[in-house]
Amino acid sequence: MTSLSDFSAISIDGNAVDLSSYDGSVVLVVNTASKCGFTPQLEGLQGLYEKYADRGFTVLGFPCDQFLHQEPGTEEEIAEFCQRNYGVSFPMFAKVDVNGREAHPLFQWLKEQRSGLLGGAIKWNFTKFLLGRDGSVLGRYAPNTEPSKIAGDIEQALDQPA
């Protein structure tokens, strides 16, 4: 069975990351953008990360420029913006496509596991996927879902064995 550990991605600083390094963790995967109306959610995502990191939780941020060119910067500019404005310390990755032929394999799989209102397609920045300790997809949340509204689901996932 496919799980998060079957994928890899490039970190925002250019290093290859085997996502199996998050085995046993509860993970929230989010496609982010710096110039989006939902960008202030980075603060809430950072808050979740700080609150639950010591219990085995992390957020993985994947910048995406597929929605009205709302992530135009370089990886270096994105990393600086997120850290300076929202104190982001959770792992961020290089820009990816989340829809279409060039969609990152992780997002192809996530969409297969949990389709949204538009079928499998991701409709906007800040779509969130919650993965359990076993790397399976537990839930999908719309862009307008505030990170704090996911806290109960995160706690429930953290209480489950790997």
Can you give a write-up of this model?
There is one protein chain. With 162 residues, this protein is α+β, with helices and mostly antiparallel strands. 25% of the residues lie in helices and 18% in strands. It has helices at residues 41-52, 75-86, 105-113, 151-158, and strands at residues 8-10, 16-18, 26-32, 57-63, 128-131, 137-141. The protein has a 4-stranded mixed sheet, with helices on one face. A two-stranded antiparallel sheet has the order 1-2. The longest helix has 12 residues, at 41-52. The two termini are 15 Å apart.
Strand order of the largest sheet: 4-3-5-6
Q: Order of SSEs, N→C?
A: EEEHEHHEEH
- Silhouette: globular
Total number of helical segments? 4
Number of strands: 6
What characterizes the major β-sheet? 4 strands, mixed
Computed over alpha carbons, the radius of gyration is 14 Å
Proportion of helical residues = 25-40%
Mean pLDDT: 94
Structural class based on helices, strands and sheet pairing: alpha+beta
Parts with pLDDT < 50 across at least 5 consecutive residues = none
Oligomer: single chain
Distance between the termini: 15 Å
Strand content: 15-25%
